[in-house]
Amino acid sequence: MTPEKMMEYLFNLPNQFKESMDIDLNFLAQYKKSYKNIVVSGLGGSAIGGDILRTYALKKASSPIIINRDYDIPEFVDNESLVLAVSYSGNTEETLSSYEKAKNKGATIIAFTTGGKLGEMANADGFPVVNIPGGLVPRAATGYLFAPVALAMEKIGVLSNVKEEIDETYNVLLDLRDSLNPDIDSDDNKAKTIAQLVKGHIPVIWGCAGTSEVAAMRWKGQINENAKCPAYFNVIPELNHNEIVGFELPEEILDKIAVILLRDDNDNERNKLRMDTSKDIIKDKVGSVIEVQSEGQSYLARIYSLIYIGDYASYYLALEYNVNPTPVKVIDYLKGELALAKA
């Protein structure tokens, strides 16, 4: 695949939200009931939607939502649990394993996939399957991997006002796309500017708990996979109790760090102060400090605006390093080795 393929994926991300609203989820109404807990089981690009769902639901859902990135399933899962098995390919071995264990515990399961073994297993076991459009790499399908899940949660009564927020997210991303696309010069393109500042540095992304934490995680993963370089993230206030102390030595390495602060108007006021103070502590010690402000009114629009800027920045950083952002050869190698070991 060419570098232009990833740009095509990025350009079309807003459409994923629009198209997700056309997916027929009426058949899920029969699963409307009160669940003791909700577990989203997935890995990588297939799990990020669950992370967004978790933070989105903090002030909306009466049932706790946790993310499971493992072969196993939490011990508390039982016949009062709802498990959302999410695998874009349908063949993620950890998700398939956790699916079987959730089934054996009597949980209600809803599968979200393009097909593969997960779709086959869920169909055979009589569990509902939400079929999402295929043809993408998982990390480029974040709209398809979040919006249908959130809309399904609305359909079964866990969340409310999801359609309205997804519609706003679609429009905010359309507007952002006009300022982030390759035709816009660096002076007016914040993603290109960020890539140029980060080049030659190790990106460290900071978000805030309950708001931008998932966006920070997404930035880290996208820089890893698209730009093929290390990146790290942490969350305020937790990082103020440990990581902030680690910006003293060695000076020659600190100068090669670029700290990216993700800002949101709905950050806790104390966390805003923590972000400001943390910036003051490190600004003269690291190579650069970059601030990115969210856009939009709803939680979903604001968080996806941060994610979209990071997606584009990771793409432009790949170009700065003259690497193709689309393939992930190391992951493919790992899967191949695991398949051989299993054979």
Automatic annotation (TrEMBL):
Q: What is its EC number?
A: 5.3.1.8, 5.3.1.9
Q: Name any one Pfam family assigned in the record.
A: SIS
Its BP terms in the Gene Ontology are:
carbohydrate derivative metabolic process; carbohydrate metabolic process
* Top-level lineage group: Bacteria
Record-linked Gene3D superfamilies: Glucose-6-phosphate isomerase like protein, domain 1
**Domain SIS intervals:** 27-161
Q: What class of enzyme is it?
A: isomerase
**What keywords does the record list, in alphabetical order?**
Isomerase
InterPro entries in UniProt: Glu6P/Mann6P_isomerase_C (IPR019490), SIS_dom (IPR001347), SIS_dom_sf (IPR046348), SIS_PGI/PMI_1 (IPR035484)
The answer to whether keyword Isomerase applies is yes
Name the PROSITE patterns for this protein.
SIS (PS51464)
Q: Does the keyword Isomerase apply?
A: yes
Q: Which GO molecular function, any one, fits this protein according to its record?
A: mannose-6-phosphate isomerase activity
* Similarity annotation: Belongs to the PGI/PMI family.
UniProt protein name: Glucose-6-phosphate isomerase, archaeal II
Organism of derivation: Candidatus Syntrophocurvum alkaliphilum
